[in-house]
Design goal:
Length: 333
C-alpha cells in the first residue's frame, strides 16, 4: 500500500474549500483503518489549494500540489523524524552558549507545531554558524532533507556557501547563482531573483521546484524590505522558515515579525550587542567625530572649480530657472 499517499477532496468553484474537510477526514479515517496508512489530504475548489497533514499540522494554504517525490519525503519524515527537544548540537560547529540556546529555541518551536522562527543576533556573533548547526540537526533528526539559503546579494550567498562547505563537508551543496546542476544538493544557495526565476520558469511543462521541494528555507538579513517584491518565494515553498537578522529586536519592523508569526519585539531568540559585549564576544562601538571645512564653514560659489560650477549651474538652470536668472545678473554686476 506504499502508493497510497494522498486524498484529494475537490469541490466546485462556487463552494469554499473547507466544505469538504469533514468528508475528506472521514475518507482518511477509513483508509487509515483499512490500510494502516493515513493519507495526506488536499482540498481545492479550483481556485485555492490547501494541504492538511492532520497528524502534524492544521490545514494550510499552498500554491500548488506536491510531486510524487515530495510526498514520499513527507511520509518518510512523518514516520522517521525525531524530537528536537534536548537534541545534541554539534559543538564543533557551534559551541557558544547563546548559539546552542538559539538552536534549542527554534527546535522547541518546530516541535510545538510552529513552522516559522526568527533569530535576532548581533553582527559577529555567528548567525550563519548557528544556521549551519541547525541545518545539521534537522538533517540528522530527519526533519529536513533539502534546504535553501536565500540572501539578497551575491556576496552573502558566496559567504554562506563557503561556510557551509567548511563545516558540513559531507553534505552536497550548490550555489544556484553560479551552477545549474542541483539534483544531488541537500542545501541550495541562491539570491532572491535567481530563486524567483526558478519558480516561475517551466521546463517541459513542469517547474524545477514544487512547493514541497524544500523542507527548510533560511532567509538571511530577514529585516530588509524584500517581502513586497519577493513574498511569492515565501508563499510558494511549503516549508519550515527561519529568518536571520542582526537588527536590534526593537528596530525590526512589524512586517518581519508578521512574516515569521511572532509577536512584535518578541523573536524566537535574541542575542543583542549589549549582551555580546558583556560576554566579551564583541567589543563596544567607538564614536568617531569627523569634521570638514565644508561641513563647518560651508562653501561659496567662487570657491568651486570650473567643473563644479558647471554642474551647479546646470542643476539650478534645470530645476530653478528663476534663481538661475538672478545668479547670472549678480555675476555680471
Amino acid at each position: 500500500m506504499a502508493n497510497l499517499w494522498l486524498w484529494l477532496e475537490a469541490k466546485r468553484t462556487t463552494r469554499s474549500y473547507d466544505e469538504g474537510m469533514h468528508q475528506a477526514k472521514l475518507y482518511a479515517d477509513c483508509l487509515e483503518e483499512e490500510f494502516g496508512v493515513r493519507p495526506v489530504i488536499f482540498l481545492s475548489n479550483g481556485y485555492e489549494i490547501w494541504i492538511w497533514d492532520d497528524e502534524q499540522y492544521p490545514a494550510r494554504k499552498i500554491l500548488g500540489f506536491y510531486t510524487k517525490d515530495s510526498l514520499q519525503k513527507l511520509f518518510f519524515q512523518r514516520k522517521e523524524k525525531e524530537s528536537l527537544k534536548l537534541a545534541e548540537v554539534d559543538k564543533s560547529i557551534t559551541d557558544r552558549y547563546y548559539q546552542i540556546a538559539a538552536i534549542r529555541k527554534v527546535g522547541e518551536r518546530f516541535d510545538e507545531g510552529h513552522r516559522r522562527a526568527l533569530l535576532v543576533m548581533a553582527t559577529g556573533t555567528g548567525k550563519t554558524r548557528t544556521a549551519i548547526s541547525l541545518t545539521d540537526l534537522l538533517l540528522k533528526k530527519k526533519w529536513a532533507q533539502t534546504s535553501t539559503f536565500l540572501a539578497d546579494r551575491n556576496a552573502l550567498v558566496k559567504q554562506a556557501y563557503k561556510n557551509y562547505g567548511m563545516h558540513l563537508p559531507e553534505v552536497p551543496i550548490v550555489n544556484l547563482v553560479e551552477e545549474k546542476n542541483d539534483d544531488a544538493a541537500r542545501v541550495v544557495f541562491s539570491t532572491y531573483p535567481t530563486m524567483l526565476n526558478q519558480i516561475e520558469k517551466l521546463e517541459e511543462g513542469r517547474r524545477k521546484f514544487d512547493p514541497g521541494h524544500f523542507d527548510l528555507v533560511i532567509i538571511d538579513e530577514a529585516h530588509r524590505s524584500v517581502y513586497n517584491k519577493y513574498q511569492a518565494i515565501f508563499d510558494y515553498f511549503d516549508s519550515l522558515l527561519l529568518g536571520l537578522t542582526a537588527t536590534p529586536k526593537e528596530d525590526v519592523d512589524h512586517d518581519t515579525y508578521d512574516l515569521f508569526n511572532t509577536e512584535q519585539g518578541n523573536p524566537t531568540y535574541a542575542y543583542g550587542l549589549e549582551r555580546a559585549v558583556k560576554d566579551e564576544h564583541l567589543v563596544p562601538p567607538k564614536k568617531v567625530k569627523v569634521t570638514g571645512n565644508i561641513i563647518t564653514h560651508g562653501v561659496t560659489y567662487a570657491e568651486l572649480s570650473d567643473h563644479e560650477k558647471k554642474v551647479y549651474d546646470d542643476l539650478i538652470k534645470r530645476h530653478r530657472p528663476g534663481k538661475w536668472s538672478r545668479l547670472c545678473r549678480s555675476t555680471k554686476n
